[in-house]
From TrEMBL:
Protein's recorded name: Exosortase/archaeosortase family protein
Region (Disordered) location: 192-213
Record NCBIfam families: exo_archaeo (TIGR04178)
Organism: Leifsonia soli
GO biological process, one term: proteolysis
Length: 213
């Protein structure tokens, strides 16, 4: 008795083509351009560290703009600080220090993104999309963390500052960094290919393999 016929020839050829494309070496120009862009990212990271004081002032301006819808004219920027007016005689100033700046999160993301580009075969569109989304996530997460510290200090004074800055703020930053890195990897890897299963598709006719019990 002859069993069902399996169309394995076309599936095998298709899988071979996919594998051949994945193993095809990158062109010399493409590889050189990848290294140049990766080194450019590393240089940008070094430059951000050099101008970190100006960067922190920019962050203070952004945080001030984010807090204005909630605090109105009672919040303003001064250098790398955002100052909240408590009453006519008292003000609360919070400084964005080197440890609190978004650069603390962006720098490892820059290194990670540059390494992936230079040493893997990730496609350009996926790399650009993943990098932009990853950087945006860590920037937004750090802004939320700083705003959380500000409101916690307003509501619970020094105790609120200590808890939000040391414990909760650190946890939020770590979760944001890890989540951004995992999402970047997911985007760079692309959708998973479904491996063809032998015998799933049954065909008949010439070129089909005969399977007997």
């Amino acid at each position: 008795m002859t069993g069902a016929t399996v169309g394995g020839a076309s599936v095998t050829r298709r899988a071979a083509r996919v594998r051949q494309n994945s193993l095809r070496p990158l062109g010399t120009l493409n590889r050189v351009f990848r290294y140049l862009v990766g080194l450019g990212l590393l240089a940008a990271g070094a430059y951000f560290i050099i101008i970190q004081e100006q960067f922190r002032s920019l962050e203070a301006a952004v945080i001030t703009a984010l807090l204005k819808p909630f605090l109105g004219a009672g919040v303003f920027q001064f250098a790398d600080q955002f100052v909240i007016k408590l009453d006519p005689l008292h003000y609360l100033g919070l400084q964005i220090t080197v440890e609190c700046t978004t650069l603390v999160l962006l720098t490892p993301m820059l290194l990670f993104s540059a390494a992936v580009l230079m040493f893997t075969r990730v496609t350009w569109p996926r790399w650009v999309l993943a990098t932009v989304i990853g950087f945006a996530i860590v920037a937004v997460v750090n802004a939320i963390r700083i705003a959380l510290i500000a409101f916690s200090t307003l509501w619970w004074d020094e105790a609120g500052y200590e808890w939000s800055h040391i414990l909760i703020g650190t946890l939020v930053a770590l979760l944001g960094l890890v989540g951004a890195a995992l999402l970047m990897l997911r985007i760079m890897n692309g959708p998973r290919r479904r491996s063809p299963k032998a015998g799933k598709k049954k065909t008949s006719g010439p070129g089909a393999e005969q399977v007997s019990p």
